[in-house]
Amino acid sequence: MKNADRGVAAELDGSDLRVAIVQARFNAAITEQLASSCIAELEALGVLAKHIKHVTVPGALEVALALQALAEQKDHDALIALGCIIRGETYHFELVANESGAAVTRVSLEHGVPIANAILTVENEAQAWARADEKGRDAARVAVEMANLMEDLS
């Protein structure tokens, strides 16, 4: 929801964090914008460029498998899922949106690693472009906040 009241987040310091991003290439121009915004925000929050791993996969359904492989490495404090699913004329939209979202959550819970899910699910390309920049930055902030919280809780 645009302009939603998100409350006040803790101070975000990513200087000691290692973060990995999995970007779906389907709807590539949009997901490139998501990735660019996300990486810029991670660096603004103090995450060193050398501590940001960025991989790509064909589409949203492949994101979770790459996240799982990264989670199993135990080298990252947080993971980020980036993608863009635009509604078409068939049920395929619901399938991809539901299954990719559930799989990302499952990986996070099974491996105890925070995953910021910025796989956009939109009605049309205009909605995707309207959200790409902010959602990329949001994903970075969520990843840093949750990585720090998990450290505090351990």
What does this protein structure show overall?
This protein has 154 residues and is of the alpha/beta class. It has one domain (22-153): Lumazine/riboflavin synthase (Rossmann fold). Helices cover 52% and strands 19% of the residues. The chain has helices at residues 28-44, 60-73, 92-111, 125-153; strands spanning 19-24, 52-57, 78-86, 115-122. Strands 2-1-3-4 form a 4-stranded parallel beta sheet, with helices on both faces. β3, α3 (92-111) and β4 (115-122) form a beta-alpha-beta unit. α1 (28-44) runs parallel beside α4 and α2 packs parallel to α3 (92-111). The mean pLDDT is 95. It comes from Leptothrix cholodnii (strain ATCC 51168 / LMG 8142 / SP-6). InterPro entries: LS (IPR034964), LS/RS (IPR002180), LS/RS_sf (IPR036467). Catalyzes the formation of 6,7-dimethyl-8-ribityllumazine by condensation of 5-amino-6-(D-ribitylamino)uracil with 3,4-dihydroxy-2-butanone 4-phosphate. This is the penultimate step in the biosynthesis of riboflavin. (2S)-2-hydroxy-3-oxobutyl phosphate binds at residues 89-90, 131.
Given the structure, what is the number of helices?
4
Mean pLDDT: 95
Proportion of helical residues = 40-55%
Structural class: alpha/beta
The count of domains is 1
CATH architecture: 3-Layer(aba) Sandwich
Low-confidence stretches: none
Distance between the termini: 32 Å
CATH superfamily: Lumazine/riboflavin synthase
Question: What is the rounded Rg?
Answer: 15 Å
Strand content: 15-25%
Elements, N to C (H/E): EHEHEHEH
EC number: 2.5.1.78
Function: Catalyzes the formation of 6,7-dimethyl-8-ribityllumazine by condensation of 5-amino-6-(D-ribitylamino)uracil with 3,4-dihydroxy-2-butanone 4-phosphate. This is the penultimate step in the biosynthesis of riboflavin.
Protein name: 6,7-dimethyl-8-ribityllumazine synthase
Pathway: Cofactor biosynthesis; riboflavin biosynthesis; riboflavin from 2-hydroxy-3-oxobutyl phosphate and 5-amino-6-(D-ribitylamino)uracil: step 1/2
